[in-house]
Design brief:
Elements (H helix, E strand, L loop, with lengths): L1 E7 L7 H21 L4 E4 L5 E5 L2 H8 L5 E10 L3 H15 L5 E9 L6 H15 L4 E2 L6 E8 L2 E5 L3 E2 L9 E7 L5 H11 L2 E9 L8 H13 L7 E7 L1 H9 L6 H20 L3 E3 L12 H7 L7 E2 L7 H11 L24 H11 L1 H9 L3 E6 L2 E5 L1
Helix pairs in contact: 3-4, 5-10, 7-8, 8-9, 8-12
Bound molecules: adenosine-5'-triphosphate and magnesium ion.
């Protein structure tokens, strides 16, 4: 019999009741992910371990390895916790991979099982493997092949592969946050990082109408759909607000160099209204220190107070290269995004806008009522399992 063994990381450090709650949320998410793919399964949690049984353990393992909170996953052969059973299964595993001349190591663990310790278990399994593949050698430091045997009070487990998961905390263990999602590379990664940290997510996008590129909205919807594939079974909303009227008044100003600051402040203002309506605790954006003029520390300091809830910036200390690598890994990187540029950005944006000047301009434009109006234009797109379901 095979089972999928799931390992989690820092959830271990939580108090017992918190650990139980987090594990139950994580197994709930795993079930949703497996159900979304039609995989029948049964999840057991003996002693805080997570074991999944089902007809297609490999497909189950691949899906579980995309679940937030999971550190790694192994497909195990399940035996009794006796040395003989473990050794027989380990030999079977080793025979598939060990060739003459290769070195190997047995990594043995034991808990709650009497009669032998882990060294004895490792030695017994090692000699059983050598009996079958005598040309192999033991190397405990840098082996070509490793086989893991675990004797637990609830059974014996043998595996030789660990698939890495995303880590983080189970989705839904933290409060809801609202990520400002664009057609670019950064903001989907920012959203993903906060989802990985357990936050329930809602996306918001500011539609620039005739001031934005023709492919902007299509790309945002694509980012939104792709991110929803990371939380299978959970509906993920994208709110799209119309920013065209704001751009109309901003482009009529004779001073173009503050446009990006005004624009980013406006986005935070509108998003704060929407976050307040939904009860989202914070906003998330893809700001990255020094990336563009609106992301100097001086400008971020002027932009941030436009939000009435905290703004989280998970990418603040990343290098662009790291963000791109991450976007590729999570599947949101688009090599040919099409026309997603902004036509409002000035050629020479200010890198340190004076807060008092910005306040005066905003008063003149009556941004507060513009923001309230923009918040009233919201269209909602709900995505699930990687597809946009409906517009409402
Ligand atoms: P890139 O990945 O090319 O940098 P970007 O979308 O991150 O694109 P920035 O000008 O760096 O563009 O914007 C900073 C942050 O502001 C984004 O990460 C995103 O969170 C938010 N943002 C930008 N444009 C929009 C938009 N139209 N709607 C919602 N949020 C936006
Ligand atoms: Mg950016």
């Amino acid at each position: 019999m095979e089972a999928v063994m799931v390992r989690y990381g820092e959830i271990f450090l939580k108090s017992e009741p918190v650990k139980r709650r987090f594990i139950s949320i994580m197994t709930g998410n795993i079930s949703l992910a497996l159900e979304a793919e039609g995989l029948t399964h049964c999840i057991e949690t003996p002693r805080g371990r997570i074991l999944i049984f089902g007809d297609e353990p490999r497909r189950i393992a691949a899906l579980v390895a995309r679940t937030f909170g999971v550190v790694s996953v192994s497909v195990c052969t399940v035996t009794t916790a006796a040395i003989n059973g473990l050794a027989a299964a380990a030999v079977e595993h080793a025979e598939r991979h060990l060739r003459p001349g290769m070195s190997f190591a047995v990594r043995a663990r034991r808990s709650g099982v009497a009669g032998f310790n882990s060294q004895e278990l490792g030695a017994a399994v090692g000699s059983a493997i050598l009996d079958r593949v005598p040309e192999a050698t033991v190397d405990l430091t840098t082996p070509d092949y490793e086989v893991f045997v675990e004797a637990r009070e609830f059974g014996g487990f043998v595996y030789d592969e660990k698939i890495s998961g995303p880590g983080g905390l189970p989705y839904g263990t933290q409060e809801e946050v609202m990520a400002l999602l664009s057609a670019g590379i950064d903001s989907p990664v920012a959203s993903w990082l906060m989802m990985r940290r357990g936050c329930r997510m809602v996306h918001v996008h500011m539609h620039s109408g005739r001031f934005g590129g023709a492919d902007g909205e299509r790309n945002v919807l694509q980012n939104h759909a792709r991110l929803s594939a990371w939380v299978p079974g959970h509906p993920l909303d994208l709110l799209v607000a119309d920013m065209e009227p704001f751009f109309e008044v901003v482009t009529a100003l004779k001073e173009p160099r503050y446009r990006c600051i005004l624009c980013k402040r406006f986005m935070l203002r509108v998003a704060s209204i929407l976050a307040g309506e939904r009860g989202a605790y914070a906003l998330v954006n893809g700001d990255n220190l020094g990336q563009v003029a609106s992301q100097t520390l001086a400008n971020m300091t002027v932009i941030a107070p436009a939000a009435s809830v905290p703004v989280l910036r998970p990418l603040i200390g990343f290098d662009k290269e790291e963000i791109v690598d991450r976007a590729r890994a999570i599947g949101t990187f688009e090599a040919h995004p099409g026309n997603v540029g902004c036509t409002v950005a000035p050629r020479y944006p200010s890198t340190a806008a004076p807060a008092a000047t910005i306040a005066l301009i905003e008063e003149e434009l009556d941004v507060e009522s513009l923001a309230a109006r923009a918040a009233g234009t919201v269209r909602r797109y709900r995505a699930k399992n990687g597809e946009v379901e409906e517009a409402g």
